[in-house]
Amino acid sequence: MVFSCKIFINNIKKLIFTAQFCVQTSDSNSPAGDNLATNGLPFPWSKVRLPNYIVPVHYHLLIHPNLTTLRFNGSVKIEIDVKNNTNWLVLHSKNLKIFTATVLDEHEAHLSDKVLSVLEYPSHEQIAIFSPKILTSGEKYFLYLEFGAPLSDGFYGFYKSTYKTKAGETRVLASTHFEPTSARMALPCFDEPIFKANYTVRIRRGLSHIALSNMPLEQTVEIGNGLFEDQFEVSVKMSSYLLAFIVCDFRSVSGMTATGINISIYAVPEKWHQTHYALEAALRLMEFYEQYFNILYPLPKLDLIAIPDFQSGAMENWGLTTYMETSLLYDPDISSASDKLWVTMVIGHELAHQVLYIKHILSLICYYIKISFFLGILTGTRRLTTSPSLPNTCTVHTFYCTYTNLSNPDVLTLDEEVDWVKLNSDMNGYYIVHYDEEGWNALTELLSANHTALSFKDRASLIHNAFQLVTAGRLSLNRALDLIGYLNSETHNVPLLQGLGYLQSFYKLIDKRNITDVTHNLKTYILQYFRDVIDKQSWSDDGMVSDRRLREEVLSLACDFDYPPCLEKAKQLYNSWVESSGTISLPTDVSETVYMVGAQDDSGWAYLLEKYGVSMCETEKSKFLSALASSKDSEKLSRLLQLGMDGTLIKPQNLPSLIYMVARNPVGHFLAWDFVKKHWNELVEKFPLGSFGIRNIIVGTVTQFSSTEELREVEDFFKSITEQVSQLRVIQVATENVEKNIMWLSRNLETMRTWLQQRLN
């Protein structure tokens, strides 16, 4: 036989990071004509990007948040490097009141005795200060500003966050989130990534609080009236969006890596016991990264802190990473194996940011490109898995392997005849392999006859490759379904999870289109075909992580499909839990499934809503919320969405997740979309355009659709608010996902229908 294969490289685009922006011409120091400041005077700069003739070198920042008045005051002395002679200094400021502005020379003497006025241009979030004396190119100057503002109500800038103690007391903290352009909400600054500078931070606070920033604490000075000033070491040079500071009353647990890096995990005092796994994971991951990449973490400490009000999963502020509580805290009595895996993944992601700073990232990318694209054939020859018994013949097999980015195909030659071949052994390379018809047939037969001839990684990667190629329109669905026909003999969890995951995603897509015959047959096929896998699952937390993840997925799917033994066991566990007033501990891996079954009647739904209100664990609250959103009662779903919008019982940070939970419910996906359209302006007030919240709301609702009528409705809505969303790339991403859903059904629905009928008959 002669096999041909095409290797499709995953999309790797825009690997070169550019730092270009518009700079005014030679008259850039002159007023910009039509751009008027808030006082009616001409503003001296017309571009959205700042001029490049003033460069910040070092920020000396003093910040004092008042957690009673919910305001903050501060001052910043910015050492600047002047590239061109100018009278104007233009920088960013948003929602800040500037009290004082002064320009100092290199000896910190005032350049002018006059009070310098500050021009504000809110549409570009910029301010400008005029110096009566020309700032000379090559000289050193300081810009000194005093400012103040209320702590932000949202999730950006310097904002307030709250939490409740077990006694019901509400406590306040102040935290920052500056990515991408919100440092300007906390201090006047040059808030673009290209303007990297050092930071010396001082924070004033009361006795009952602590202060944290990117660098270690250098000293604390008592300044009177019950106030203390924490002074931190000078930071490394970094962009403004990586600056961070927090004032709170949290407790921490700490440890030291083998290379002497102090790592600490912070959380609200009553959740301190949930920090220990995060410390263990962070220590091991930091040591792994340093050894694997041969790159030392450049700072002396790293703090990881769980913020009660936080919109994204986490943020990689250098030396002070911030997290949503569900992304950092782990409670062994409540958190499942999937929760533990999620915490590990998020910490691993953020620590990679800390260690692999930009110059090393670029060098690693270049190394990867070189290996994968240019030496890929040589690597590929060493990563062929072939039939273990090779006959002693001289037949030559030729493999035509084409990289999509190369114009000429390369040829791989085997010197012996083989019955089958599996490229990209153990999926070590980041690409997808497509075989010709004989190649797929040989691998399908191999899996059916002796699947252990391939490693579990190879089996999982074959399943992944096949269904990805189906989505790309390069492989027929029935061939991919035939490939996984062996799964009822599979004993390893990873291939099982891979195959079941694809079947479940197809079911959800078709179910939302209300295509009843295919939905019914696919459900019947999964329950019949995987019954042995379902029946052997225990309702416990036993086993390795992969065992526990499979149990969680399989039992959740079986109960969702109304499999009687699963429903009966879940109801039994739920009733026992309710009878104990929620005091007995359910197995963590199945607790969410148990709650979902319990939420399907009125009393169960009401009880879970009550428990949500009193729970102190965000992971547990997330499981309750998911169960509440699984109800088949549209009125309950509407009530839940309204509670999310009110923001009292359900925190605003959880509203995007709630909308997505309702949208993935077949009863709720139109309900969620109508809710988003009706409340769009209110949602934008809570979550700024471009924020993680808006992105998740749009993607979570729109990508549930799969018909041309739904696509037109989505496009019409966003056209009606074009002025708001014209620059949001997430709109394009979401509509493209709908188009992909439409294309998938167009290509594969009839194939799925026929294949299922043949198998079930």
UniProtKB/TrEMBL annotation:
<keyword id="KW-0378">Hydrolase</keyword>
<keyword id="KW-0479">Metal-binding</keyword>
<dbReference type="InterPro" id="IPR001930">
    <property type="entry name" value="Peptidase_M1"/>
</dbReference>
<dbReference type="GO" id="GO:0042277">
    <property type="term" value="F:peptide binding"/>
</dbReference>
<dbReference type="GO" id="GO:0070006">
    <property type="term" value="F:metalloaminopeptidase activity"/>
</dbReference>
<keyword id="KW-0862">Zinc</keyword>
<dbReference type="GO" id="GO:0043171">
    <property type="term" value="P:peptide catabolic process"/>
</dbReference>
<dbReference type="Pfam" id="PF01433">
    <property type="entry name" value="Peptidase_M1"/>
</dbReference>
<feature type="active site" description="Proton acceptor">
    <location>
        <position position="350"/>
    </location>
</feature>
<dbReference type="InterPro" id="IPR024571">
    <property type="entry name" value="ERAP1-like_C_dom"/>
</dbReference>
<dbReference type="InterPro" id="IPR034016">
    <property type="entry name" value="M1_APN-typ"/>
</dbReference>
<feature type="domain" description="Peptidase M1 membrane alanine aminopeptidase">
    <location>
        <begin position="277"/>
        <end position="354"/>
    </location>
</feature>
<dbReference type="GO" id="GO:0008270">
    <property type="term" value="F:zinc ion binding"/>
</dbReference>
<dbReference type="InterPro" id="IPR014782">
    <property type="entry name" value="Peptidase_M1_dom"/>
</dbReference>
<feature type="domain" description="Aminopeptidase N-like N-terminal">
    <location>
        <begin position="55"/>
        <end position="242"/>
    </location>
</feature>
<dbReference type="InterPro" id="IPR050344">
    <property type="entry name" value="Peptidase_M1_aminopeptidases"/>
</dbReference>
<comment type="similarity">
    <text>Belongs to the peptidase M1 family.</text>
</comment>
<dbReference type="GO" id="GO:0005737">
    <property type="term" value="C:cytoplasm"/>
</dbReference>
<dbReference type="InterPro" id="IPR045357">
    <property type="entry name" value="Aminopeptidase_N-like_N"/>
</dbReference>
<dbReference type="InterPro" id="IPR027268">
    <property type="entry name" value="Peptidase_M4/M1_CTD_sf"/>
</dbReference>
<dbReference type="InterPro" id="IPR042097">
    <property type="entry name" value="Aminopeptidase_N-like_N_sf"/>
</dbReference>
<feature type="domain" description="ERAP1-like C-terminal">
    <location>
        <begin position="420"/>
        <end position="739"/>
    </location>
</feature>
<keyword id="KW-0031">Aminopeptidase</keyword>
<feature type="binding site">
    <location>
        <position position="353"/>
    </location>
    <ligand>
        <name>Zn(2+)</name>
    </ligand>
</feature>
<keyword id="KW-0482">Metalloprotease</keyword>
<dbReference type="GO" id="GO:0005615">
    <property type="term" value="C:extracellular space"/>
</dbReference>
<feature type="binding site">
    <location>
        <position position="349"/>
    </location>
    <ligand>
        <name>Zn(2+)</name>
    </ligand>
</feature>
<dbReference type="GO" id="GO:0006508">
    <property type="term" value="P:proteolysis"/>
</dbReference>
<keyword id="KW-0645">Protease</keyword>
<dbReference type="GO" id="GO:0016020">
    <property type="term" value="C:membrane"/>
</dbReference>
<dbReference type="Pfam" id="PF11838">
    <property type="entry name" value="ERAP1_C"/>
</dbReference>
<dbReference type="Pfam" id="PF17900">
    <property type="entry name" value="Peptidase_M1_N"/>
</dbReference>
<protein>
    <recommendedName>
        <fullName>Aminopeptidase</fullName>
        <ecNumber>3.4.11.-</ecNumber>
    </recommendedName>
</protein>
